[in-house]
Automatic annotation (TrEMBL):
It comes from the Bacteria. InterPro entries: DUF1579 (IPR011473). This is DUF1579 family protein. It comes from Nonomuraea guangzhouensis. The lineage of its organism: Bacteria, Bacillati, Actinomycetota, Actinomycetes, Streptosporangiales.
Length: 128
């Protein structure tokens, strides 16, 4: 993905826009913590997939600076015509590097293939 403007942290989430495969791209992500399950949950909405994607991390016994949030999505053709409608495992790994700078890595695992990094974005918090 080519980001036309720097990605921004917006409170407990992120917002990014740019181009993907030559087409306009937009993503909004919301990060929350379930005090019941003691885990982080991450939901994204973007201009590529027609539905929200939700990821749920493992139960955390203690704090961490790396959040691994697995999930799945029904591929709308992002991986090519052979994958349309197939359930694809996806994992977002959020690394908190410092208070105002985080890295988001997104991995996909197509059926019968090994996991691959498909996106890496470095986010910086918006200034007031």
């Amino acid at each position: 993905m080519a980001v036309d403007r720097p990605a921004q942290l917006a409170g407990p989430g992120e917002e990014a826009e740019g181009t993907l495969g030559g087409n306009p791209y937009y993503r909004l992500g919301i990060l929350g913590f379930s005090t019941i399950d003691k885990r982080y949950e991450w939901t994204t909405f973007d201009s590529v997939t027609p539905s929200a994607m939700t990821y749920r991390g493992p139960n955390l016994a203690r704090g961490t600076h790396v959040l691994s949030l697995p999930g799945t999505f029904a591929d709308p053709g992002l991986l090519g015509p052979n994958y349309v409608g197939k359930t694809i495992p996806i994992c977002t790994v959020i690394t908190i590097r410092e208070n105002d700078r985080h890295t988001f890595d997104i991995y996909l695992t197509p059926p019968g293939e090994s996991e691959r990094l498909i996106d890496r974005v470095i986010y910086v918090r918006k200034s007031a």
